Amino acid sequence: MQVTSPVRDPLVTGGKTYKDVTNDIARQVEGKPTVGWLLGLAVSLGALLIGSLALVATLWEGIGMWGLNKTVGWAWDITNFVWWVGIGHAGTLISAVLLLFRQKWRTSINRAAEAMTIFAVICAALFPLIHMGRPWIGAIWALPLPNTYGSLWVNFNSPLLWDVFAISTYFSVSLVFWYIGLIPDFATIRDRATGLRKTIYGALSFGWDGAASTWMRYESVSLILAGLATPLVLSVHTIVSFDFATSVIPGWHTTIFPPYFVAGAIFSGFAMVLTLMIVTRKVFKLEDYITIGHIELMNIVIIITGSIVGIAYITEFFIAWYSGVAAEQYAFVNRMFGPYWWAYWSMMTCNVISPQLFWFKKIRTSIVATFILSLVVNIGMWFERFVIIVTSLHRDYLPSSWVMFYPTITDVGVYLFTFGFFFTAFLLFAKFFPVINMAEVKSVLKSSSEKKLN
Amino acid sequence: MERDKHFILGVFDDEDILLNAVREVRATGIRIHEVFSPYPVHGLDEELGYRRSRLPIAAFLFGLLGTTLALTMQFYMMKFDWPMIIGGKDHAAFPDFIPVTFELTVLLAAFGMVGVFMISSNLKPWGQPRIFDLRSTDDKHIMAIDVATNASVDMEKIKDALKSSGATEVNSKSFD
To answer: Which GO terms describe its cellular component (chain A) (predicted)?
Structure first.
């Protein structure tokens, strides 16, 4: 007997069977690399190598290689840090928050989104690390380790230290969450393979056998990890925003920062997931798994978070005026009409106006439009951080020290290095790891639309 | 006959048929060794009569440990070992300790629980699982019945029970 529910469309199209799911996903891992993949890897490795010259220059000569000056002491480094951390928010949001809300469509995108999260957080962590100047002894400065100065401990009142704990916890918990999900799929590949591949994926699969008792614990672990990761993901960008909000710099000293930064992080993270998934589904022919429906739902999240960000921008301005503090008011007028007006208006156009186009169903279900807008959103979010950081600093309390910030080739190179790393890591992941969570997709394959009884 | 060596395997195509089959087979008094599935089947643990996982308790206890360690560490370092006035705040500025306390709670809860999960499910990189049927990580649900634990039941009766409850194949498997 077949019972078909008329309410919901199937999450996976093309009438796939369990066997098809295994074949479609495992084929990417087992087959030879495609020309497109090799080209992509060559370009990313090129960026990684060219960028590493800038990284070596920074480590060898010191951070004097960057365009920082005595007025603007934070610029591209921290902009890139916040940008990458923000991108790293989508993965855990998709896998944890959507799991708690029982959004089953997350199953075909969560694996890749979590991988993206992990790589983005590594890119982000690079910036504060190299900004220490001597990162090889940085661990002693940043962690509460006993030392020969007393012990003189780290300052637990400082948001920069909270960041150390937040980012490292976020990274390691996301990594564990991601890996637990990978174990059953590694076992699937192991059971199809022979020889060396069987050995490698056998070790990666930790001896998984799919017993009902193990699945029961697995489900319990996933649920609790999701429950832990949900406040964690919100705390991370909250603490990142504290780096600014707890200071007394006009333009930074704002209580709206935590929610505003978290919304912005989800906004940019979803945009990056869309950018990557639109390419991945095309290259790996996963159109039946990552459907237009998925893209539309992610675009709806972008409208919501983009609008929150827009309201936050406007609220900041209102409060600056309402506060009656001249320095605060000047900081915001300077953002809009000062020498960095172009950065401010790029941010406004990319983040506030462009996502509103997704109100049109035609645009939010169009692959090309989504791809272009996802890039626009990430450009806008980079400008947002640049605007907040540089325009609040470059005209400080003493007009004689007002300057402009100009990035050097080393600034650009280090940023390029993180791009090279991010895409190299993602391409390697997409080739050697199952890019879609096979076990979870199998579990939603039919439950949403039909039920078979004996 | 020795226990945990010789098994009769029922192969199932569909999770709903499997759930019914587990209920029917258990109702006839046959004891099921384990069911192997390619994906989590909801309600299967209840049908098999498994006790609820106690991993949430482990997570809670590890989280509590994290909270305690984080607070102890921060109060010891900032208030007792080397007190300093920072930004005019009290040495023991409790609100400032919340972020690190929260992060360490989450960290220890997550890692502790996953560690317990790995140990209780016997998951380790050098682990060599006993594979009853290679298709159990692909598209089939495999119900394994230990012949020795069901010595009082006739072998043919077990096979018939599996077939009549919807198994597409009934095989036997022995391990050394």
So the answer is: plasma membrane
